[in-house]
Specification:
With 427 residues, the chain is α/β, with parallel strands linked by helices. It has twelve helices and 20 strands. A hairpin with a 2-residue loop joins strand 16 and strand 17.
């Protein structure tokens, strides 16, 4: 039974957690394949709001085996705090399995993230300062510590001593910071974190392949989104891993032929957090309206999101980069009160028209969005349960986006609740 991937098509915050939660009833295994606790999924279940950062959304279902794959970077305190919070709310978190090959976020990663952003000043990237980038940098440099190292105190201390010697030199000589103590770090990680994490550590690659071999349903869940991808996003305003569907393979241990369905998630408009190009960005009263109606503040950081009109140019690129089979469109209800809606169908710059993003970043920063205007529906969608009951203008808007993107829109979200989803499969 091939696996399904859920991937964001914009700059994150599209509602991947809600869709994963919706699909979970059909799944047996759900795996988070990249990122760290810098990205959050908010899910509303029976009026209760769950904000997950590291745990796969499937952890809310008792029949699912939730996995944290090898492509994730794990900050132990953040993970344990999240598990404690879930347990306190009646969720059995003991089913979680964490890949032994996932890398650890260490205290020096957090410190380096903080001081580097301050050092960059106006050129700061807008990171969450949670050590994600430095942890991935160490992984690439082959000096990182992995989750499995917590199970061998001798190896852990040896690797820590090597890493910390270089990190302390950088912190002291470049950033004028006090050195960190290897003894204190080892004591906390080995005495406090290791005993609690040890029962969760396992062979997630083996679990996934066994599940597929047995005909069970597997869902791969990414964090962030296509245009925050380290290789394909709006570099350098990106994350430090690969959220695209291809990253689901490297971050989980599955092969490309193990996947046959890739669902792209996109908002009915666009948002992004932090710096970076945003051709369809909206300012003024309309922006404040969308922020207010869409509750556009980061799950993890609480930062206000920038908002803009739907961008079909970037959506077409997301289709190509991820081999999307379909789109799920979220937050359609946020547009309920707007009289006229705009959709970016192309970019223009220096007399040239682009229907796909220009490869050169200098061009992307200067393009002008070309819009098509569609009438709004001025109707409350939150109680809608079928596509047939949607206003004609709403159906026209969805159909127009599908035509522009080139893949069908199968689901639309009309509210934050897990049941506020309308299927377009037969529409």
């Amino acid at each position: 039974m091939p696996a399904t991937v859920v991937v964001g098509t914009q700059w994150g915050d599209e509602g991947k957690g809600k869709l994963t939660d919706l699909l979970a009833k059909e799944m047996d295994v759900v795996v988070r394949y990249q990122g760290g606790h810098n990205a959050g999924h908010t899910i509303v279940v029976d009026g209760e709001r769950f904000a997950l950062q590291l745990c796969p959304s499937g952890i809310l279902y008792p029949h699912i085996t939730p996995l944290i794959g090898n492509g994730v970077v794990v900050e132990p305190q953040a993970l344990l705090s999240e598990l404690d919070h879930l347990e306190a709310r009646g969720i059995d978190a003991s089913r979680l399995v964490v890949s032994g090959n996932a890398h650890l976020i260490m205290p020096y990663h957090l410190e380096l993230d903080r001081v580097t952003e301050r050092y960059l000043g106006k050129n700061a990237l807008g990171t969450t300062k949670r050590g994600i980038g430095p942890a991935y940098a160490d992984k690439a440099a082959r000096v990182g510590l992995r989750v499995q190292d917590l199970l061998d105190a001798k190896i852990f201390r040896e690797k820590l001593d090597v890493a910390l010697k270089e990190k302390n030199a950088v912190l002291a000589k470049v950033y004028n910071r006090l050195p960190l103590s290897a003894k204190d770090i080892a004591q906390r990680y080995l005495d406090e974190f290791a005993p609690r994490l040890a029962p969760m550590v396992g062979d997630t690659v083996g679990i996934l392949h066994d599940a597929l071999g047995a005909g069970r349903n597997v869902l791969l869940e990414g964090a962030q989104a296509t245009f925050l991808d380290l290789d394909h996003g709006t570099y350098p305003f990106v994350t430090s891993s690969n959220p695209v569907a291809g990253g689901a393979c490297t971050g989980s241990g599955l092969g490309p032929r193990d996947i046959d369905r890739v669902i792209g998630i996109g908002k009915a408009y666009v948002t992004r957090v932090g710096a970076g190009p945003f051709p369809t960005e909206i300012h003024g009263d309309l922006a404040e309206l969308l922020v207010d109606r869409g509750h556009e503040y980061g799950t993890v950081t609480g930062r206000r999101r920038r908002v803009g009109w739907f961008d079909a140019v970037m959506a077409r690129q997301a289709v190509r980069l991820n081999s999307l089979t379909e789109i799920a469109l979220t937050k359609l209800d946020v547009l309920d009160t707007i009289e006229a809606l705009r959709v970016c169908v192309a970019y223009e710059f220096a007399g040239k028209r682009y229907v796909l993003p220009p490869y050169h970043q200098s061009t992307l920063h200067q393009v002008t969005a070309v819009y098509e205007e569609l009438p709004g529906w001025r109707t409350d969608l939150t109680g809608t349960t079928s596509a047939a009951d949607l206003p004609a203008a709403t159906k026209d808007y969805v159909a127009f986006l599908a035509e522009q993107i080139g893949v069908p829109v199968r689901l639309v979200g009309v509210g934050p609740g897990r049941e506020q989803i309308v299927s377009f499969a037969a529409a």
